[in-house]
Design brief:
CATH superfamily of the domain at 61-119: GYF domain
Strand content: 15-25%
Helix content: under 10%
Number of strands: 8
Shape: elongated
Strand order of the largest sheet: 2-1-3-4
CATH topology of the domain at 61-119: Dna Ligase, domain 1
Number of helices: 2
Largest sheet: 4 strands, antiparallel
Radius of gyration: 29 Å
Oligomer: single chain
């Protein structure tokens, strides 16, 4: 039955898979010692740390600095700090997500970890590499450069295909005679 292993990820049962595949998930950090696994379709769910050979003795994953984070209620890791920082740079780890260092570390918001959200931009320099979308009636070729030197006032008039606004005091409409329900 060595090829009938299952694991839970984000509340979804994955498997069946070979024991080697389960070990690969563990070594890559996609399966934590606390993740639930079982052998066979009818096996009991157990913590992955209890499966001989998936993790070194005691469920410790790796000797160097290990980091874990929570995602959709699931604990993911272990991983190196550099990998955790890469997740943050890619926007996959947000400041409000909880992280911990080591198997017995204290959970804290990712924003409380120094250097995790370190910006490459010098202090005080604003992010000006953005572009606001123009209203739908302003056409500009996608390749045209954005002129940032002009004022930000709207165009003088919308094109002809945009209906004009109708002014009303909300009292000059007529619903007609009451209709009798049949």
């Amino acid at each position: 039955m060595s090829g009938n292993w299952y694991c839970l990820a984000f509340g979804i049962e994955l498997g069946p898979m070979a024991r080697d595949d389960l070990a690969q998930l563990a070594s890559s950090g996609q399966l934590s010692p606390d993740s639930q696994v079982r052998e066979g379709a009818a096996g009991a769910w157990v913590a992955a740390r209890t499966v001989a050979g998936l993790f070194p003795a005691g469920g410790e994953a790796i000797a160097e600095s290990r980091w874990y984070y929570e995602f959709m209620g699931e604990v993911l890791g272990p991983m190196k700090f550099e990998d955790l920082r890469l997740l943050a740079e890619q926007g996959n780890l947000r400041p409000e997500n909880r992280v911990r260092e080591g198997d017995r570390g204290v959970w804290k918001p990712a924003s409380a970890v120094p250097e995790l959200f370190k910006s490459e931009r010098p202090a005080g320099e604003a992010d000006t590499d953005f572009e606001l979308s123009a209203p739908h009636w302003v056409s500009r070729p996608a390749s045209a450069p954005v002129d940032r030197s002009t004022s930000s006032k709207p165009p003088s008039a919308p094109p002809a295909d945009v209906p004009p606004a109708v002014e009303s005091d909300d009292t000059d409409f007529d619903l007609g005679p009451p209709q009798k329900a049949e």
